[in-house]
């Protein structure tokens, strides 16, 4: 049932927000020259997938977890995208394709070995990663791997249709601020 809502909401979101996405894309062209950021992430069963986002950092920024990147790496427009959470909009494509859910643990990079170990212990990779979830609305990010993995596992063990809507609505309503930047 959750996959049905993921598909429906991501398709609807992409169609309705297409004009906004096009405007952000064009502004991004002027900001960095490459407005779409594609990065390989760890998916369900540790299968790699390409995550899509609007670029918020300079092109020369190393591919590391956000909490390891310098605040100076974020462009002015990128700061706006992060604050408004609009940088996540292209991830609706990932949800539509079935690589992600709207609700699930945030997908990490393959070089985040401590987080991978903590999530493996708790079987977090048995589920699709998501755009938002319990950790995100409680402002727990990837800088605290054990704490994040525990919260992810808690969310997944108790995930229901009502909690799915609760996490989505909380995120749309402004809860959570994403990963911190150094």
Describe the protein's topology.
Layout: H1 2-31, E1 36-42, E2 48-54, H2 76-84, H3 91-97, E3 101-103, H4 113-121, E4 130-132, H5 134-137, H6 145-157, H7 161-172
Parallel strand pairs: 3-4
Antiparallel strand pairs: 1-2
Helix pairs in contact: 1-3, 4-6
How many domains? 1
| Order of strands in the sheet with most strands | 1-2
Span from first to last CA? Answer: 39 Å
Low-confidence stretches: none
Biggest sheet overview: 2 strands, antiparallel
What is the N-to-C succession of helices and strands? HEEHHEHEHHH
Radius of gyration: 15 Å
Count of runs of 4 or more consecutive helical residues: 7
Beta percentage is 5-15%
Number of strands: 4
Structural class: mainly alpha
Helix content: 40-55%
InterPro entries: Bact_transf (IPR003362)
EC number: 2.7.8.-
Protein name: Sugar transferase
Keywords: Membrane, Transferase, Transmembrane, Transmembrane helix
Characterise this structure.
This protein is 46% helix and 11% strand. The chain has helices spanning 2-31, 76-84, 91-97, 113-121, 134-137, 145-157, 161-172, and strands spanning 36-42, 48-54, 101-103, 130-132. Strand 1 (36-42) and strand 2 form a beta hairpin. The protein starts with a helix and ends in a 10-residue tail after the last helix. The model has no long low-confidence stretch (mean pLDDT 92).
């Amino acid at each position: 049932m959750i996959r049905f809502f993921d598909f429906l909401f991501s398709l609807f979101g992409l169609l309705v927000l297409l004009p906004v996405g096009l405007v952000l894309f064009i502004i991004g062209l002027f900001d960095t020259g490459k407005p779409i950021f594609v990065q390989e992430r760890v998916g369900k069963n540790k299968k790699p997938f390409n995550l899509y986002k609007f670029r918020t950092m300079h092109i020369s920024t190393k591919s590391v977890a956000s909490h390891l990147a310098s605040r100076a790496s974020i462009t002015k427009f990128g700061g706006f995208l992060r604050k408004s959470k609009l940088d996540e909009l292209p991830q609706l494509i990932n949800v539509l394709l079935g690589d992600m859910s709207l609700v699930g643990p945030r997908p990490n990079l393959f070089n985040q070995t401590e987080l991978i170990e903590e999530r493996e212990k708790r079987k977090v990779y048995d589920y699709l990663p998501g755009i938002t979830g319990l950790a995100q609305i409680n402002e727990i990010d990837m800088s605290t791997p054990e704490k994040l993995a525990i919260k992810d596992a808690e969310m997944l063990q108790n995930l229901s249709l009502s909690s799915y809507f609760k996490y989505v609505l909380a995120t749309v309503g402004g809860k959570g601020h994403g990963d911190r930047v150094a």
